[in-house]
Amino acid sequence: MRVIVTRPEREATRWSEQLSVRGFDAVSLPLIAIGPVTDPAARQALESAWRQLDRYFAVMFVSANAVAYFFESNHGIAYIPSVFSAIHSGVDQDSLPQCWAPGPGTARALREAGVPAHAIRAPSVGSGAQFDSEALWRQVRPGLPHGARVLIVRGSDGDASPAGREWLARQLAGAGVQVDSVAAYARGAPAFSASQAELAREAAQDGSVWLFSSSQAVHHLMQWMPAQDWGRACAVATHPRIATAARRAGFAVVCESRPTLEELVASIESVSWRAVTPSKDESPKGGA
């Protein structure tokens, strides 16, 4: 069974490898292009955030890409090394800023970047909760002191302004927390090749399962292929909002799943089975 992995290239490679081990013909087709911020104002804000990390109670990373580009941006910047290495430097661990992650992929990226596990706050994989800002808020709200300061690290749509949902920022502000945001990476639509276009046309009607982890990926696909009929296409979406976007785009069968390997495997198998005789009003859920 073929699975079209639409995540940005960095994560698409990892997911494709994991799904291939589980017996799927996983093909990477990144529908979001990710790169470093190039806007001078954005880069200055990012450098400033690095130099002042010790002023924050917590740093929230919206994705694994936010982690990767935030830490990569440190190259050549003189910052306080002990901020994220208190265990090795002898600094009081209570002085570490917490690092917040909406899901296990972002938490893993933080650990790979050298953030100690005790400093990471994220929804529990075994809790059954959705991996999003709402679940993260339930996790961090009880220990959040009034008057704290939180930095949100996210992407931009090519300019200096951070982009993305503002839900968590509004909750923090309502709890008396000062919120700053900084863009660590730029995102946009990728440049598609002729071979990728052919792959997408085939996968729209041959029973392939499209794996979406972003509503923006669905939007880019619709922009790229505005005349394509998706009435025979199947998709697995890693959040209800993404599933809604796929249904609105015309995908015949859409299954929702949390982005853990076991749940994704179950959902891919479920959506492909349901695609054989999909019900007109069916909106299957599997693996969640």
Can you tell me about this structure?
By secondary structure, the protein is an alpha/beta fold. The chain folds into 2 domains: 2-32 and 190-274, 3-Layer(aba) Sandwich (Rossmann fold); 35-188, Rossmann fold. The protein is 37% helix and 18% strand. It contains 11 helices and 11 strands. The protein has helices at residues 9-21, 40-51, 64-72, 86-89, 104-112, 133-140, 167-174, 194-203, 215-224, 240-249, 261-274, and strands at 2-5, 25-28, 33-36, 58-61, 98-100, 120-121, 149-156, 178-188, 209-212, 234-237, 253-256. It has a 6-stranded mixed beta sheet with strand order 3-8-7-4-5-6. α1 (9-21) links the parallel β1 (2-5) and β2. α9 packs parallel to α10 (240-249). The protein is globular and about 55 Å long. The two termini are 21 Å apart. Residues 76-83, 86-93 and 277-288 have low confidence and may be disordered.
Give the SSE map:
Elements: E1 2-5, H1 9-21, E2 25-28, E3 33-36, H2 40-51, E4 58-61, H3 64-72, H4 86-89, E5 98-100, H5 104-112, E6 120-121, H6 133-140, E7 149-156, H7 167-174, E8 178-188, H8 194-203, E9 209-212, H9 215-224, E10 234-237, H10 240-249, E11 253-256, H11 261-274
Parallel strand pairs: 1-2, 1-9, 4-5, 4-7, 5-6, 7-8, 9-10, 10-11
Antiparallel strand pairs: 3-8
The average pLDDT score comes to: 85
Order of helices and strands: EHEEHEHHEHEHEHEHEHEHEH
**Roughly how many Å is the radius of gyration?**
20 Å
Low-confidence spans = 76-83, 86-93, 277-288
Give the termini distance in whole angstroms.
21 Å
Secondary-structure content class: alpha/beta
**CATH architecture title of the largest domain:** 3-Layer(aba) Sandwich
Instruction: Tell me about the largest β-sheet.
Output: 6 strands, mixed
CATH top level of the largest domain? Alpha Beta
- What's the count of strands? 11
Strand order of the largest sheet: 3-8-7-4-5-6
Continuous helix count: 11
Helix content: 25-40%
CATH topology of the largest domain: Rossmann fold
Broad shape: globular
Strand content: 15-25%
